[in-house]
Amino acid sequence: MKSAILITYLRHDALNEAVSLCDAAGYKIIHTIKQKFLKKPKYGISAGVLEKLKETTKDLNPDVIIFDELLKPRQNYNLASTLRKQILDRESLILEIFENRASSKESKLQVKLAKLKYEMVRAKEKVRLTKIAEQPGFMGIGKFEVDVYHTDIKNKMQTIKPKLEKVRKQRELHRKGRERHGFKTIALAGYTSSGKTTLFNKMTGEFHEQSKQLFTTLSTTTRRITINGEPFLLSDTVGFISKLPAYMIDAFKSTLEELLFTNILIVVVDINDYSLELQKKFKSCMRTLNELGVKTDQIYFALNKSDLLTNDQIDEQLECLNLQNSNMTMVISAKTGKNIEELKKLVFPKTNYQ
Ligand SMILES: Nc1nc2c(ncn2[C@@H]2O[C@H](COP(=O)(O)OP(=O)(O)OP(=O)(O)O)[C@@H](O)[C@H]2O)c(=O)[nH]1
Ligand SMILES: [Mg+2]
Predict the structure, then answer these.
(1) Ligand 1 within 6 A of 256 CB?
(2) Is the pLDDT of residue 138 over 60?
């Protein structure tokens, strides 16, 4: 396992997520630096903190330094040249996770495209800086090379797009086929690690990779399930994450597109989170669904991991999400199977299909 020094925020929820991201990317954190702000212009952190970090880096000799914010190319360069280590910012860390996990042809293409977009944003800034500062050779590349680099990324992106379009069309054909057969579809959505795949497995009786790590699922998996003798199609989806940059949402949109055509949507929520984190994740999840254009009247909420809480705690969490009076909500445990049958009944009351 590669080792890392993590620079992140003081806030508990931000720290938790950063640790999970490092874990998902396969980095062992050997030291953590917590800061209130990570947006100082030159290095992201203050000169004082940088001095200390220099010492720690020398002592611990980590493989990489992970910076839990987006870094401008110049900031990344400043940090890397001072600390003499590879610096991974939040987005490149997420991209690394996506890259390790992508298994289907579509998700692999999407990750490639997202990586190129990440590079493109940086290439543009490098070009801009070279022009403004009139510093040929800034960051080791001259203007000519920057232009070539820029064009090269563009070309690569252009070759991926039609391939992605082709896979997307195939998926659309599959979906139309299912519609023709009159199958109703249910999709599971939610924040990463909320337990979608565990619930999917419980409902389908199949086994799919599920784990504590984030982003275990990188493409939609669809299976047929039978409820009271009626066939339905159930889809597992990619997990949401807070602060996922727009260009990544774009790249992953085609996987989430499935959510637009689903008859029923079940949002899986991990209610074992601290209330602030719970609210934040829930909001971020609902915002993403909104951005995708998913209709709200078909949304159910499965409040998962209830096995880890007492009844009083569950009530508190329900209130925290303002769902205490919702008749679209079921408190479940995908792990123990608690209320799974009830969830099915809530989602498909008998009258719905008789
Ligand atoms: N205690 C408890 N743990 C659960 C429950 N459901 C899921 N988990 C655990 O939560 C972790 C994440 O579960 P997954 O099913 O992989 O989550 P996911 O939402 O599919 O995550 P991504 O695919 O990464 O978006 C795993 O370690 C599960 O064992 C539950 O009801 N109770
Ligand atoms: Mg999953």
Answers:
(1) no
(2) no
